[in-house]
Amino acid sequence: MQGVFISPVKRRILFWKAVGVIFFIVLISRISWEDTLQIASNSRPVYFILAGLLEPARFIIEALRWKTILYFQRIKYSLKNAFLVLLASSYLGHITPGRVGNFIRAFYLSSDTDVPLGMAFSSVLVEKYLELALTLFWGMWGAVVYLSGLHLVYMVCMGFFILVSLFYFLYSPKFHRRLLKISERIIPKVQSLKIENFQKGLRLIDLNATFIALAISMFSFFVFAIQGYLITIALNIHIGFFNFALIFYLSKMISRLIPVSFSGWGSKDVSLILIFKNLGIDGKSAFAFTVLFLFSSYFVSLILGFWAWERKVLIWQKD
Q1: CA-CA distance, 239 to 118, in Å (whole number)?
Q2: Radius of gyration of the chain (CA)
Q3: Considering only Cβ atoms within 10 Å of each terminal Cβ, which end of the chain, N or C, has fewer?
Q4: Dihedral (Cα; 303, 233, 133, 254), 10-degree rounding
């Protein structure tokens, strides 16, 4: 039976969704859609198309990252299945509050391979941690550069912090129990998994697995930044790639800290528009960027995810 295993939404998630709807209404009421569409229509479409084509490529890279983690956990799972499941879970993440649909991957993996749900869940959490850690790393670096210029000391400090937090994440039983308690509040059946299997899955991820997964994550982040940079080229927005990447991930970090969004638009886009304007980039061009990037990434992944969700039906019969 195909279904979405998401528990009743907590009040705080509903609150942020309500804020997102209000925020979206205020945003579109202040936008000159005629000027935005004029700017978008004058863009160079070849770069916009290239940005869209990179979206499935980015998912393949992320599927390879997940498969690498599973390899070190001694779980055999094909790249094709990892790719389809990643797309399907991304689709569910787009349409569920708090993006908790992303964790459906654990149910897919457990159903397909008969590995314990706890171990399957650990692989997804590790990947999410790596993604969050790199988002904070590049986002904070972007904040430092944007506010006061480049500081190499920051890179050393943040790198040290990420490594320390990574070891704490992988090897702290107390932290593991807290993670599961938080997960139980929003994802049903997580409470039925055994923490021993969850911890076993984390212990199998050694330094080699961590650094390989981080390297693949860096490549995925690079491709994602290229997608955005191609849109700036299409719109004739003049900004260097490195500066754009830092600003781009600064806005993404803000969206993680302030999870307000509606139909793909949210705090990330507003922060990006404000930063662009402070850098002397026209506000209309900045908003046109968010519109085109929304189509080249969010809607492309939504379509691909729906296709994968319909193609790979999840059958869950375990207790």
Answers
A1: 45
A2: 20
A3: C
A4: -90
